[in-house]
Design brief:
Elements (H helix, E strand, L loop, with lengths): L7 H13 L6 H12 L2 H18 L3 E3 L6 E3 L10 E4 L4 E6 L4 E7 L4 H21 L3 E8 L2 E12 L4 E12 L4 E12 L5 E12 L8 H32 L1 H5 L12 H14 L1
Antiparallel strand pairs: 1-2, 3-4, 4-5, 6-7, 7-8, 8-9, 9-10
Subunit structure: Heterodimer of an alpha and a beta subunit.
Protein name: F-actin-capping protein subunit alpha
GO molecular function: actin filament binding
Length: 280
């Protein structure tokens, strides 16, 4: 049977699957590997953009606008079109380059004043919450009619220790029914002398007793306390699970350090041994 030569489009379609599975903080590395395999930049940029767009939105990628200090989350909730997103906090609309992951051309954006008081109250509360629990995190609060959406993402990259991780949580609030639904996802990639990805997610259904119409600030405080309790419970469950893994699966994957708590330098030991052998 003769070999079938794949077209450039078929190769990029296969490569897109690898791109969508990129671990946190490693999408550029995967893209560069794909680029070397495809060896056709024009075709790659033309066909790979939809996969990058899907990845950035699904992973809640963050970007910093020119002349701002806070990170903006790229999501389907603040999306205007394929390339433009809204930053509710700075009241700007901007263009996002999915390939280079950069923000350009920020323009003033008109907000819905009737809902802005509530959005500002929740945004202020979530910023304090994120600063306390996710020091390197970012958040976004979006309101669309009677639904409020709250996003939190926190990335922790430690390539020197061969691991990267990402936390994502999405909370939607039915303002009329005061019902809260959420999902939280954790992805950790460990790659020292191996390749392990740990995926975990949990769904939530909660209630918020405060009335957003009566006192937005009080509603925001109650909402974040409710969300905080749920996320803390999930954090503790994850810590317990990963603790068990480190005592079972991980212990079989990685040799424990000696009592010096440092890796053995085998080259140095060999150099010590050689003179002894030669003197004999």
């Amino acid at each position: 049977m003769s070999d079938v030569e794949l077209s450039i489009e078929d190769k990029i379609k296969i490569a897109s699957g690898f791109l969508l599975s990129s671990p946190p903080g490693e999408v550029n590395d995967v893209f560069n590997d794909i680029r070397g395999i495809i060896n056709d930049d024009a075709a790659l940029q033309q066909h790979i953009t939809p996969a990058l767009e899907e990845y950035n939105i699904d992973q809640l990628q963050t970007v910093t606008l020119p002349e701002t200090e806070h990170a903006v989350i790229i999501s389907k909730y603040n999306r205007v079109d394929a390339d433009h997103f809204v930053d509710p906090r700075s009241k700007q609309i901007f263009k996002f380059d999915h390939l280079r992951q950069t923000a350009t051309d920020p323009q003033p954006h008109t907000v819905e004043e009737a809902q802005e008081e509530l959005r500002l109250a929740v945004d202020d509360a979530v910023q304090k919450y994120v600063a306390e629990h996710y020091p390197e995190g970012a958040s976004l609060v979006h309101i669309d009619e009677q639904q409020l959406t709250l996003l939190v993402v926190s990335n922790k990259y430690s390539p020197s220790n061969f691991w990267n991780g990402r936390w994502r949580s999405v909370w939607t609030v039915d303002l009329a029914a005061r019902q809260v639904k959420g999902t939280a996802k954790v992805l950790v990639h460990y790659y020292e002398q191996g390749n392990i990805q740990l995926n975990s997610d949990r769904s939530f259904e909660l209630e918020c007793d405060a009335n957003p119409a009566e006192d937005p600030a009080a509603f925001a405080r109650v909402l974040l306390r409710t969300i905080g309790r749920a996320e803390k419970e999930y954090h503790l469950a994850i810590n317990d699970t990963y603790g068990q893994l480190s005592e079972s699966i991980f212990k079989g994957l990685r040799r424990n350090l000696p009592v010096t708590r440092s890796k053995i330098d085998w080259d140095k030991i060999l150099n010590y041994k050689l003179p002894t052998e030669l003197s004999k």
